[in-house]
Design a protein that fits this description.
Length: about 325
Amino acid sequence: MDKIFAATNEMLYQLSEEEFNRINEWYPIKVTSHIMSEISKKKSTRLAAQFLPDSRELQSDEGIGAFFPEEIHNTEIVVQKYPNRCMIYTTGVCFAHCRHCSRKEKWHEKNNFSYFLFDKAYLYINQNSHLEDVLLTGGDALANSDDNIEYMLEKLSAIAHIKSIRLATRAFTSFPDRITSKLCAILEKFNKVVVVTQFNCTDEFSDKTVAAIHNIQKTGTPILNQSVLLKGVNDEFRSIKDLFSTCAAHRVIPYYLFHCFNVKSVGHFRTNVELGEKIINNLVGNIGGWWIPRYILIPDSTGIKIPLCPNGLVEHSEASIRVKDYRGRILSYE
């Protein structure tokens, strides 16, 4: 912890020992040696801001907690918000604690994988044929053991009405050594699996990270990226453009760009929505079409995703349709 304290004071804000200890008590600090090495080597304030503590975490207790009002808890670990898909909270453990995490209130609850709770979740999913997609999350899904991951994938893959199984992880950023040959061999056995990760800046793409990405892809498993718009990390057009270009260069599909949730203690990361709209709309015509993610807002009152996609529609009436291209030209569409 002494190294983390020193790195925080060097890279971000000067913290007193008392502030550091209070933050650690409320929202435990957890950083891997890989992250610390990359922060030091690259002098990356963008990476440091995501994982090192900030005194502003102590200044605001406004915002939502770990769950949204319209989430339905079908079992102890199955949560559903949409008609055809659900989440399974497989573990409460992460390799590192992202300071903007929407579940940071739960960091004290180090719930490990439970065969009993998973089998109960499996039974519920197997009995509800309207469910087509399952997200294995946590914590970090890859913080589970290889045996437990294989057990979950084998059980869920055998359900005929399940079309896809998503594994949510930040291991590429926080602990790329987790992507072992044994894990890849397990993933190669199951053709319903998609890996979902979170890259927020180009500084996260270390040599080990890139190797881990490519090893996963060799199994035939797609990788989707869900970024979060974060003040001081990626809240400029150039940084976002470079991020998605780097994702594309490694065949990681930019899927979502989330507006930072209104979560307790993360207010210092939040931008305004207008900035996000401007950035996402400016990407159109300036990078490849499939490199552009959907920009997503999640209202506190529901927790349901609302896409603010790049939108060129100016007017749609009975008389005419007018659209705007990426050069700003307004055109009539016949």
